[in-house]
Design brief:
The chain is α/β, with parallel strands linked by helices and about 325 residues long. It is built from eleven helices and 14 strands. The strands form three sheets. A seven-stranded parallel beta sheet has the order 3-2-1-4-5-6-14, with helices on both faces. It has a four-stranded mixed beta sheet with strand order 8-9-10-11. Helix 8 links the parallel strand 10 and strand 11. Helix 1 packs across helix 10. The longest helix has 21 residues.
């Protein structure tokens, strides 16, 4: 059995709990929270501990799944966890992945632990698809469209702004850009031409809404490069109209094998629950990290470094027999 710890119990932590509960080869040692443990009630009934007690579980957990946000949480905390535990996280600030990797790889290598960063569906599954499509169709261009759906990372980034009580952000693909790509025109598209971002924000009483809107629209790596609309609404409206965390997206590779023949490769996802699906991806990759750690591997890896057979719930050799 793979002994797993889950750090954080927000939307993503709940999704991981559900995925771990379905995995017959996993045993959850506990959910670790910064809140008062007695106030956290996982839907799966897993035990809950203070994150301050994690040190007591060193050597008793095969892999920690980190469910914090990418804006401020993971950059501040993962380095501490990976000193003592093998870890898997969903860090999704694409522009900062190289520096995040370099920092953690040094720590993990020095401490003999194994980490996997930036796992989910993008970065993660879509990253693998871009690599595969680009390899088999080198004369072409990649296009990735997200949504329409709720981005957990962007929503979390808004909630970190002073004066914001709650927020949801939708990533919205621009249909005219998507149509140009699917028609085989291979257009040059800026990020602004591909997507818009729509934010629904509950501000704290007497908060400066103009400042909040300005901070959102100017936030680097998240909103500054996009057409962004900010709506201020009540807590009741947010709960009533924006409770469902659906998402999805498509990766497209458009190119040619000869001057006469064009090819269009696509993978699409349509998700009723972004955090539940992301939790499922994290859990599958946690299985791979636990298996590779037993083989003595250390340092930090990305999805490009993990053989897919190690994600398979059955013995990896079964993938050869039943899926190839």
């Amino acid at each position: 059995m793979i002994k797993v710890g889950i750090v954080g119990y927000g939307n993503l932590g709940r999704g991981v709990c559900l995925a771990v509960d379905k995995a017959s080869d996993f045993e959850c040692v506990g959910v670790f929270t910064r809140r008062e443990p007695s106030s956290v009630k996982p839907v799966t009934g897993f035990p809950v501990y203070s994150v301050n007690d994690l040190g007591k579980f060193k050597g008793k957990i095969d892999v920690l799944i980190l469910c914090g946000g990418s804006a401020t949480d993971l950059p501040a905390t993962t380095a501490n966890y990976i000193k003592d535990f093998n870890t898997v996280d969903s860090f999704d600030t694409h522009a900062k992945i190289p520096e995040y990797f370099a920092k953690l790889d040094k720590i993990a290598t020095e401490n003999g632990t194994l980490g996997l960063i930036s796992v989910g569906w993008d970065p993660g599954i879509f990253s693998l698809v871009r690599l595969l499509f680009g390899s088999v169709l080198p004369d072409g261009k990649d296009y990735t469209f997200w949504g329409k759906g709720v981005s957990q990372g962007h929503s979390d980034a808004i909630r970190r702004i002073a004066g914001v009580k709650n927020a949801i952000q939708y990533t919205v693909p621009k249909e005219d850009a998507l149509e140009k790509v699917r028609s085989g025109l291979n257009p040059e598209l800026s990020v602004r031409e591909k997507h818009a971002r729509e934010c629904f924000v509950v501000a704290e009483e007497n908060a400066d809404k103009a400042r909040i809107e300005k901070e959102i629209k100017e936030m680097p790596n998240y909103f500054a490069d996009y057409d962004t609309t900010v709506h201020f609404i009540s807590e009741e409206e947010l709960k009533r109209e924006h409770a469902k965390l659906a998402h999805g997206g498509v990766v497209i590779r458009s190119g040619k094998t000869t001057e006469e023949n064009s090819e269009l490769l696509q993978l699409s996802l349509k998700l009723d629950s972004n955090p539940e699906f992301t939790g499922s991806v994290l859990t599958a990759y946690a299985r791979a990290i636990a298996r590779l750690a037993k083989k003595g591997e250390t340092g930090v890896k990305t999805v490009f470094d993990i053989p897919l057979k190690y994600l398979y719930p059955l013995d990896p050799d079964e993938a050869f027999k039943s899926l190839l």
